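note to self: dont lose this again. the chain is below, predicted strucutre after it. 218 aa total, dont forget to put it in the shared folder this time
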Amino acid sequence: MPHVLSVNIGARADFEPAVIGHTGHDKRPVPGAVQVSAPVGPGSGLAGDHISDGRSHGGPDQAVYAYAREDLDAWSAELGRDLVPGLFGENLTTVGLDATNAVVGSRWRVGGALLLQVTDPRIPCRTFASVMDDRSWVRTFTERALCGAYFRVLEPGAVAAGDGIELVDLPDHDVTVRLVFRALTLEPDLLPRLLDAGPHLTGKTQEKVRRRLATTSA
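---
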């Protein structure tokens, strides 16, 4: 059965290089249940979870980040190192559901109360590269496009390791998180396909698509 393997939150921590300053990327599995709700402003949806870069992460459309244990295992095999839950900055490490290939706008019921909706892919940043201690990590991650998914919170609730995950609603388009990621990064020829998702795309992503399509048609 699809379920949450671990719930991961991060505290504010000083981080090198100095230009980054501090980060909440270092998520660690926590015991017990964590309350999840729609954040007000640029914060995380998980109680106690810190976000330093509110321009790139967090907020209502990126309240929760999920990454599949299966994708972590694929990376572990490729990199030759053990990747623990939370290392990629994910709040939920999942088993049995493919977050990267989730359809944008689909809804996941987690546990009894929490209802999440798939929104955006995660775009890698220099903090992620520093955590991985790999200067080429942004390029490597982008080329592989195993990006995981962000979610907005439709109905608040608590989440804990072991909670079941159920796909409860699937939109009538085939635009996946991975397709959005590929279109916004290395494959701009895919941008027109994103229009099929219509209002299921976040406002920020819709604006990016409109701007880039306008540039290519000018």
